[in-house]
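Hey, quick one: can you model this chain's 3D structure?
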Amino acid sequence: MANRPRQLDAETMARLRAEAAAPYRGLRRLFYGAFAASGALGGFIFLLKLLAGENPTDVLPNLALQAGVVALMVWLFRIDRGRERNQ
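Sure thing. Here's the predicted structure for all 87 residues.
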């Protein structure tokens, strides 16, 4: 029997082409989600510290950093999603 390549349906071929165009998209999104969750948890903890009455000059920079991490991850995810739509 001759080795003939199997015919792929259109949906499978489209998925493979999208994966070839952006091979690590799923991994990137996993990191975005993990870092955003970490920033949200850290922000929640610093917010509780602020509400508990700790010194605001110690807590606010850390709270702002955690909010910045979450905002950065959301921004990167939106850029990645926009690039996916354009393909």
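One thing worth noting: The chain has a mean pLDDT of 89.
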